[in-house]
Amino acid sequence: MNKIKKIEIKNKKVYLVLESMRKTLCTVANMLYLVMFAVLTARTFLSTTEFNIPWRVLAQSDNVWHQTAYMLLFSPQIVLAVIVIFQYVFSGNYNWKEYILALIMGFLMFRITDANGGSSLLAYVLLALGARNFSFRTLMRIYFPIAVGIALVTVAGSQLGWVENLVYAAREGRTSFGFIYPTDCAAHFLFLGLGYWYIRGKKLHYPEILVFFSLGLAAWFGCKGRFSTVLLMLVTVSAFIYLSFLKRVKNPQRWDQIWSGIPSKVLILMPLLCNLGVHIVSICYSVDNKFLTWFDSVLNGRLSLVKKGIEIYGFRLWGRNIPMTGGGGGVNMPSKYYYIDSSYMQVSLLYGLIILAVVLVLFTMACLYARREKDWILLLVLSFVALHGLFEHHAFQLAYSPFLFAAFAKGEQAHGFGKRVKMFLKKTEQS
Hints:
Layout lengths: L1 H45 L9 H5 L3 H11 L2 H13 L6 H14 L8 H12 L6 H25 L6 E2 L5 E2 L6 H19 L9 H14 L2 H23 L3 H9 L1 H7 L1 H15 L5 H9 L3 H12 L29 H9 L1 H20 L3 H13 L28 H14 L1
Antiparallel strand pairs: 1-2
Helix pairs in contact: 1-4, 1-7, 1-19, 4-6, 5-6, 7-8, 8-9, 8-10, 8-18, 9-10, 13-15, 13-18, 16-17, 17-18
């Protein structure tokens, strides 16, 4: 009997040691994920500004640490993949359906080439897969201060002469406020407004709605970014209506019942509907169609450019290398301008239909997460991201939109990462 007890005690000690090792490795992986998330957020956001940062010096240096830093900043795919694998293996939360889906997504994403920014899309999806150990609100509380801080420094710097403020002659002068292109600046205004609404949530007050309206005015009178301006005005109206109805329906359960019906079901389909709509319009575009020709002129030729890409390159399962030259970074437009602005069409033509399916699954999962958590503001925010992706290319870029990371995020009621770290440190001190 004593021998059996000794074996049980020994097995228990081995289990405790292994469990402690698992938790330690999981904690380290989570910490590394947050560091990479914060660093990549800052680096990608800075890449949309006119700040002249000599990143290449790191790559050209003989110092191994400098080269490693450059690799982590601009080619983080392998490191992110290792971190995500450690997160999944040592998490202790084994959801095999989620594991299989993440494995399939990861494998398919690694099939795309590095051409045309494929590596950045891969990094984006890997960060989304690694969000499973955090609530999405935790990630946004890291992302938002970084993004706002860099944006404020950029805009202020453009007015104080710290950074070049590009002014384009079109539309009576379009200002970029220190960013590489006015449209990109307007998109930042939109997504920062959406981030502010999400973080404030139900605590938002009527005067704060002026934030969205002010950003809309800046996007219109400064950047002349028409589509982002329209969406910001819609955000202003939506926030006002949402807040008004929230004040009237004081019963939270009744509020959730209203949203759980048709409104949330329609909003969940927004990514799929927007993707389908822009594909149909782009394929059907013809110079003989007067309405689509007029619509194309309103969109500054976006439809005709996409149609040209469809006719020359066509749709493929894995996409192909399409040379694209935009107008960012200088006021002189290139002689051979060609750029696909729609987020959906860009993924479809450059990376292929399979990768487009991966992105749409990720997008839909984020919407389902919002509905499951009864986070109706997040669901509205995701709908605006879906609309933005119709005619602009920022919807799946970390510098603008981290909202798809909600796809694999934990619910608000789950134990936060900080609590697990404190518990781990407490156990370490006791031992």
